[in-house]
Structure formats: structure tokens, C-alpha cells
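Review form for a predicted model. The reviewer records the input and the model, then writes brief findings.
Reviewer: anonymous (R2)
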Amino acid sequence: MFLPKYPEAPTPPPAPVHAPAAEPAPVRRSLPTLSVDHKAVMALVVGGVVLTALLAAVAVTAVSVAVAAVVLRSLLRDRRR
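Model under review:
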């Protein structure tokens, strides 16, 4: 009796029923597969070891030649005096 009367809200027209659009699946790109030959890998590792050993040998030789040069220079300087 004492309840307020609210105006009725208009109802929206019914939306047409559509089937949901199928979204295309994302394209998954895989990394290219590498067929690795174990012999090639071993050759690469052995080559790296050999090159490293050669570099170390050159460095040791250079240091020893430098030390020998300093010693010889010292000996020759003492002899001049």
C-alpha cells in the first residue's frame, strides 16, 4: 500500500543469435631442426683443443724468448763495463 511504484525499464530488443566466430589458431613456428653429426662435433672439439694448445705454446715460447733476451742483455751490459 505504501510501497513506491517504480516505472518499468524498457526491455532491449532480443539480440540475434549468432554462432561464435571461430578464431584462427595461432601459427606456431618451430625452430629448424639440426641434424648434428657426432663426428663433426668431435672434429670441431678436437680442432678447438689443438688450436688452444698451439696458442698456449706460442705464448709460452714468447715469454721464454723475452726472458732470455732480458738475461742476455743483462749479461752483455755487465761485460761492457
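Findings: The two ends are 133 Å apart (CA to CA).
Further findings: The mean pLDDT is 85.
Recommendation: see findings above.
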